[in-house]
Amino acid sequence: MSGLRKWLRHSAAVAVSIAALAATSATASADTTIKWLHLENQEPVLELWNQIVDEYEQANPGVTIDMQFLENQAFKAKLPTLLQSSEIPSMFYTWGGGVLKAQGETGVLRDITPALDADGGKWRNQLNASSIDGMTIDGKVWAAPTQTGVVSFFYNKELFDKAGVDGAQIKTWDDFIGAVKTLKDAGITPIAGGGGDKWPLHFYWSYLAMREAGQDGFAAAKAGEGDGFAGEPFVKAGELAAELGALEPFQNGYLGATWNDALAAYGDGRAAMILSFESTGRTQASNSTDGKGLAEDNIGIFPFPVIEGTPGVVTDNLGGLTGWAVTKDAPPETEGFLEYFTSPDVAKRWSAVAKTIPVTKGVAETITDPLLKVSAEALAKETWHQNYLDQDLGPNVGAVVNDMSVAIMSGQISPEDAAQQIQDTFELENM
């Protein structure tokens, strides 16, 4: 056991949680190891997760939870191989959507519906029904949902003030483009970008496509109607993304930059904006050069702008519904641990530390962190929640969306050709 894990055992809070958990948990079998594959390697989240693991292990003698880490891109690249190997994890991180559907179809996952409905549906009843629906495919729940979120623009108030830009007044795409130009004229890099990881730039094309097509138009493309993703709204989205890219709004070297590099550029004050997750208040700090990043009161948030004359509205959100998939031969205690991990007490502690919005009932309403509360309120009034396209459309189509988003914004492909490549791959996947 690590020194950190030993040190954490002295906590009185841990002792109280263990007592509560022991009273409700099933008896665990001896010498069981749960392999937990995750993407989080930053304090203070890891410290809390180690604490939660210790609580569960103490309440369930004979159970060991082996925490295994892979960086985001390595995770996506290596997971398919791991799922077919002797090193298969018991549970792993998932964004849901078409990728989860494809994994479920391979037979490598375990349907957790029986576990959710055990004991009169005790576990199911502690989670928001919509989150369970989001992980349900063909009547089976393939992953335990844990958090939801929304992608928004985070901006540096001091840099905006220096350039004379009012973030609260950015409502339309024209407003946004104007702000980018004004920032550049002031000698300020407008946006931090992580083009090396590709998926961070797909947020732009995805949101623009949502705004241009609207929910009905987007649903029609997914249903294979008309020209699908090669249709006019999606070409127009590419044209607007290309317009942005032509302004060279990102930091130097953005095409080779990782997502953590982008967070560092924003957290260091080397770029004025970042299109990012609800947890950005924490992650920009942990990735910054000094480990502190921007002060909370120096960060503003505005939703992705609308495009005048199109059906998309500002309450149509792009964001994730994430959770943990369980593999078919995982120990039965795996679901028990996940039930504890998503319990109200743990979810509140996790939300406070990780700056996330759990799907456990009643937790979002207790959020007091100012930045996180903005995201929670945006989710509460949303009219459409679209999962990340690189997950929602399945692994192959999603990879093309990511590639084309980077290619469009860097001027390597025309919007028309990019949209056609996305549509061609979509048709192949849905023949």
TrEMBL record:
Residues 1-30 form the signal peptide. It holds the Pfam family SBP_bac_1. GO terms for cellular component: periplasmic space. The keyword Cytoplasm does not apply. Coiled coil: none annotated. The keyword Signal applies. Belongs to the bacterial solute-binding protein 1 family. This is Extracellular solute-binding protein.
